[in-house]
Design goal:
Elements: E1 10-12, E2 15-16, H1 17-36, H2 39-58, E3 60-61, E4 64-65, H3 66-78, H4 91-107, H5 121-129, H6 137-144
Antiparallel strand pairs: 1-2, 3-4
Helix pairs in contact: 1-2
C-alpha cells in the first residue's frame, strides 16, 4: 500500500515538481518582459511577476497550496453559503400552526408501560447488547401477555 499520497515528489532539494514548473513559467514570463519592455517597465512588471511566482510556488495557507486557496476563495465569492430567509407566511398562520401540535399533545392517548421484574434485568441487558438478536424466554413471555 502506498503511503503519504498527499506528499509531492521532490526533484531539486526541497523544490517539488509543481514548484519547479511554476518557477520555470515565471522565469519565462520575466524573460519575455525583458525582451519586450524598456528597463523601467521591465523592472516593475518583473517584480510583480516574481512576487506572484513566489506566492503561487511557495506560500501555503491552512496546509493547502496558494492556488487551491485562491480557487476556493473565488468560488466562495461567486456562490456564498449564506442563505437568507424571506418570510412569506403571515403571523396568524404561524400562530395557528403552533397551536395544532399543542392540541395533539393534549388529546394524545396515554401509552401503558409494562413493568419488568428486577430479576430479568440481566436478560434485558443481554437483549439490548445483542441488538435484539437474542430473544429472552422470560421477557418474551412477559411482553406477549
Amino acid at each position: 500500500m502506498p503511503q503519504f499520497l498527499d506528499v509531492e515528489d521532490r526533484i531539486i532539494g526541497p523544490i517539488t515538481v509543481r514548484q519547479f514548473i511554476e518557477i520555470l513559467v515565471g522565469g519565462l514570463i520575466i524573460f519575455i518582459f525583458y525582451k519586450l519592455f524598456d528597463f523601467s517597465l521591465f523592472v516593475v512588471a518583473g517584480l510583480l511577476v516574481f512576487g506572484l511566482t513566489v506566492l503561487f510556488a511557495f506560500v501555503k495557507i491552512n496546509g493547502q497550496p496558494f492556488h487551491n486557496f485562491l480557487l476556493n476563495f473565488i468560488t466562495t465569492l461567486k456562490n456564498p453559503k449564506l442563505k437568507i430567509w424571506r418570510k412569506t407566511v403571515s403571523d396568524q398562520e404561524i400562530k395557528a400552526s403552533l397551536k395544532k401540535p399543542l392540541e395533539l399533545l393534549i388529546t394524545a392517548p396515554k401509552i401503558k408501560r409494562q413493568a419488568f421484574d428486577a430479576s430479568n434485568l440481566s436478560e434485558l441487558a443481554l437483549i439490548v447488547d445483542t441488538g435484539g438478536v437474542y430473544r429472552g424466554e422470560g421477557i418474551v413471555n412477559q411482553i406477549n401477555k
